[in-house]
Design goal:
Layout: H1 2-15, E1 26-31, E2 35-41, H2 47-58, E3 69-74, E4 80-86, E5 89-95, H3 101-118
Antiparallel strand pairs: 1-2, 2-5, 3-4, 4-5
Helix pairs in contact: 1-2, 2-3
Keywords: Signal
Organism: Siphonobacter curvatus
Protein name: Lipoprotein
Length: about 120
């Protein structure tokens, strides 16, 4: 869980570096039988709100600063997904065949919440 929180919170911070206006916002969700994918670019003014959301949704975990993330994360409940993040972008991909339905639903809910925060809904 700590790895997931660290990766996602760090990715949020990295997003902010390259985006300068709301016209840069782009969110893509792909959900099919094999995988669930969430990718986003967003306005840096949403960073603090997104970090607060992630802390509330996933718990107050410590995170470290890195320039780029490209890692597969496995949570204590065996939820596994891939995170790629660099300045201004984030992509999360979950292979559904490698995860339980509850894990998919949880990650999907977190990503839907991230979308709402990014769009300031």
């Amino acid at each position: 869980m700590k790895t997931f929180v660290s990766g996602v919170i760090l990715a949020v911070g990295l997003w902010s570096a390259a985006c300068t206006s709301s016209s840069d916002t782009a969110i893509t969700v792909k959900d099919n039988e094999e995988a669930y994918t969430f990718s986003a670019h967003y306005d840096k003014s949403r960073t603090a709100a997104l970090q607060e959301y992630l802390t509330d949704a996933l718990g107050p975990e410590a995170w470290t600063s890195q320039v780029d993330i490209n890692q597969t994360t496995t949570l204590p409940d065996q939820t596994t997904f891939h995170v790629e993040a660099s300045a201004g972008q984030l992509a999360i991909e979950m292979d559904k065949s490698s995860n339980k339905p509850a894990a998919y639903q949880r990650l999907k809910k977190v990503c839907e919440g991230m979308r709402n925060v990014i769009l300031d809904k």
